[in-house]
Each structure stands twice: as structure tokens, then as C-alpha cells.
Amino acid sequence: MIKEYDMDAKRLEEWIERYFNAELSIDEERQLVHLLATTQVPAHLERDKRLILSLHADATREHTTAIQHLSEQIDEWAAQEHRPIRHPFTTRLWRVASIAACALFVIGISLQLRPSTPRDTFDTPKEAYAATYEAMLIFSSALNKGSNYANMAMATGKKVERSVSHQLETFNNFENNN
């Protein structure tokens, strides 16, 4: 251990030499740096003192700078965490959408409440008859098609019913024989 009060020039030279040979422990290195920073050294060791202190000053400064930067970043994140998030575009969009929805609602209600007057769509009875005849043909065609599907469904239902009856009879016969 280095003691500040009993360090003579010879021993200080040894510790500096061990420092440059990387033979000091971390604690011893810290003590040497502290001793060099706080005491006077002989003139022939002044150059080594400045070198060692400058090496450690940079490391200390970089360490302090990194810690300060990290601390500032953490403070900034904390400030952002408590800051309310406002999205002016989204707020404006919701306002416009709600106004548009209200306008559509009012227009729809007004169209429903407006009295409707029936009007003739055909100029002559012949045109009305032709349109009615065409509509009846379409209806008849759809009815026939639906009727065909209903007949097919009934035929399929009867086949299923016969198959189920046959399976039940087979099951009953098997049960009676055993």
C-alpha cells in the first residue's frame, strides 16, 4: 500500500515504473493517481506525473461524460413519459367525421319523413302491360327453378328416409338374432 506521508522519491519511482510495466493492482493504481494528484513530486518525476494524470484524467472525463449523458437521457425519457400525447391530426379527423355522420343522419331522416307521391312510370297502358308481362315471366322462371330445387330436395329426403329405414331394419334384425 502507498502511504502519502512516508513516500520518498525512490519508492515513488518504483511505483511509477511498476505502473508503466502494468504490475500494479487497480487499487494501487488508484492510490498512485490520487497521490500524484495531491502531492508535490521531485522535478525529474514531474513529466511522469503529468503523463499518468493526463491518462487518468481522460478516462475519468470519459467516464463522467458517459454517466452524464446517460443521466440526461434517463431524465429526458422520464420527462417524455409524463408528457401527454396529443395528436392534432387525429383529433381534427374525429371532429370532421362526427360532423359528417350527423349531417348524413339528418339528411337520412329528412328523406324518410318527406311525403312521397306515386307517379306513373309508363306513358301508355301497352308499355305497362309489356313490363308487367316481362316481370311475370321472370318471376315464373324463378318460381319454376325454385320448384325444381324443392322437388330435388324432396327426392333426396325420400332417399335418405328409405336408407335410414333400411339401416334401422338391418340393426333390428341383427339385434333380434343375437
Write the layout of secondary structure elements.
Layout: H1 9-20, H2 26-38, H3 46-82, H4 88-113, H5 125-177
Question: What does this entry look like structurally?
Answer:
The chain is mainly α and 178 residues long. Helices cover 79% and strands 0% of the residues. It has 2 domains: 9-82; 124-178. It has helices spanning 9-20, 26-38, 46-82, 88-113, 125-177. It starts with 8 loop residues before the first helix and ends with a helix.
Taking pLDDT < 50 over at least 5 consecutive residues as the criterion, the unreliable ranges are 1-6
* Rg computed from alpha carbons, rounded to a whole number of angstroms: 51 Å
Number of helices: 5
Major sheet size, sense and barrel closure: none
- The proportion of residues forming helix, as a percent range, comes to over 70%
N-to-C span? 105 Å
- The mean pLDDT is 80
General form: elongated
In total, how many beta strands?
Answer: 0
Summing up helix and strand content along with how strands pair, one would put the structural category as: mainly alpha
Query: Which quaternary structure do these chains form?
Result: single chain
Q: What sequence of helices (H) and strands (E) makes up the elements?
A: HHHHH
